[in-house]
Fold this sequence. Notes:
- The chain is of the alpha/beta class.
- It has helices spanning about 1-25, 40-55, 70-85, 95-105, 130-145, 160-175, 195-205, 220-225, 255-265, 295-310, 320-325, and strands spanning about 25-30, 60-65, 90, 110-115, 125-130, 150-155, 180-185, 210-215, 230-235, 245-250, 275, 285.
- It has two domains: about 1-130 and about 255-275, Response regulator (Rossmann fold); about 130-250 and about 280-325, Rossmann fold (3-Layer(aba) Sandwich), CATH 3.40.50.2300.
- Helix content is about 45%, strand content about 20%.
- A six-stranded parallel β-sheet has the order 2-1-3-4-5-11, with helices on both faces.
- The longest helix has 22 residues, at about 1-25.
Amino acid sequence: MRVFSKLLAIVLLPLFFAMSASASPLKVGFIYVGPVGDHGWTYMHDQGRLMVEEKFGDAVETSFVENVPEGADAERVITQMALSGMDIIFATSFGYMEPMLAVANKFPNVKFEHATGYKTADNMAVYSSKFYEGRYVQGVIAGHMSENGKAGYIASFPIPEVIRGINAFYLGATSVNPDFDIDIVWVNTWFDPAKEGDAAQVLIDQGSDIITQHTDSTAPLQVAQQAGVLGFGQASDMHHFAPDTQLTAIIDDWGPYYVERVQAAIDGSWTSADTWGGMDTGMVKMAPMTNMPGNLAEVALSLIDQIESGELDIFPGKSIGDLLGMGEYLEGIDAIVPN
């Protein structure tokens, strides 16, 4: 009987360890450039992380590090995540591209995903959204709603993603008012409520009665509310922070993408990919149209339908390479792109 028990144990032991290994949760790491409470960019990425937890339950174990500066600090944090046994790591800011690529080359068995970049490897994918589609719609709304014919644009860093958005906003506004003007303030940060708020006030003092932004805090919208001018939210629906000011907001919906990629990591089908989703895929959405006439809201919703269907091409004649490498303002924007 003892011999039989020992033989049974010998046979079943490898199966037990195999089952234990397969039952181990997939470790998923996220690296954020700002705080999860910014109610903008980082907040929406973290909402995607929470969607992963809700979808997979005990099959995954997620963790995140917030407020990670781009550059050497990012490489250190990504390395620490890889060393801690992460199976897949998402880095959610443009400046994480080179640090993540360097770490990916050292850890070929870890899966890496970089948001808004353009460099890939066998174990490193990139993903982003066509935010500029929403900015075009915002520009059209601004063209109709601005009494002064001028909007203030708070920009973070002079990278193609941000310049592309400025150009799209300008195209939308000038399709309504050919003389529309935009003033641009570069704050050289993704998240700094004080700097963003000060920039909004400067733009308002210079005559902008519409405030928009490619930064992550609610401060510009709140300053606009205090000044009695209109504005747009960024990355999430910020209506709660400026109920009398927000016209609409671009909503970054990362959750479905994160669920899809984690599922691929779980079932073994994950491969490096280059994903650039827009309104047609649901990665870019718009908050409800508020503080505007009903007929203008209908115009905005019609534009969204045209973009989703492919009927409206915001940059006709431009290739994907042209868009991804866009580094100059369109003719008519009276400003200089900083170095």
